[in-house]
């Protein structure tokens, strides 16, 4: 109860009354807190091919006591979300215009998305592994005692120079919470997450 799915359109829809950016939430599909975009397969869509009528809600207008609901139409083509329109005419026109080029575009987007996720995971795992190695190295130095540790640190620093490219950033090493820093650097849309590969 109370669950819904989110549909993201680019650019986002704006409220025709107050101009607020609107979030599209719907209970027409499986209401499993799933995020759909144009090109997403919606296996739980109530129609195989057709238009699903819903409404677009503006919480700003609702709070101000104005009418807050507008029509919204999901265009479904063989269980794929082919469009999101604000008039029935536009939705029917979109449904009639789906073609092979749309399929290629959606396929391309899906494959690109998959590659990006793999790369992000690989970069994230590499940093976690580097941190793990760093902690083990520091622990070994502590265990070996300060004098031996000093020598180790020097030889270690020398040995690491050729691999500087794969070292953890200073932001991570100097952070009071390095694991949290790793997580934040690898969050989606973080510029640090795009610096390699
Ligand atoms: Zn509004």
Question: Could you explain the architecture of this structure?
Answer:
- The protein is an alpha+beta fold.
- The protein folds into 2 domains: 5-98, no CATH class; 103-194.
- Helix content is 44%, strand content 17%.
- The protein has helices at 59-63, 88-97, 100-144, 146-160, 170-173, 178-185; strands at 5-8, 24-26, 35-37, 49-57, 69-77, 80-85.
- The strands form 2 sheets. The protein has a 3-stranded mixed sheet with strand order 2-1-3, with no helix packed on it.
- A hairpin with a 2-residue loop joins strand 5 (69-77) and strand 6.
- Helix 3 (100-144) runs antiparallel to helix 4 (146-160) and helix 3 (100-144) runs antiparallel to helix 6 (178-185).
- The site of zinc ion (ZN) has 7 residues, from helix 1.
Topology:
Layout: E1 5-8, E2 24-26, E3 35-37, E4 49-57, H1 59-63, E5 69-77, E6 80-85, H2 88-97, H3 100-144, H4 146-160, H5 170-173, H6 178-185
Parallel strand pairs: 1-3
Antiparallel strand pairs: 1-2, 4-5, 5-6
Helix pairs in contact: 3-4, 3-6
Bound molecules: zinc ion.
Return residue spans where pLDDT drops below 50 for at least 5 consecutive residues: 191-197
Strand content: 15-25%
Number of strands: 6
Write the H/E string, N to C.
EEEEHEEHHHHH
Question: How many strands, what sense, and barrel or not for the largest sheet?
Answer: 3 strands, mixed
Arithmetic mean pLDDT: 86
What is the count of distinct domains? 2
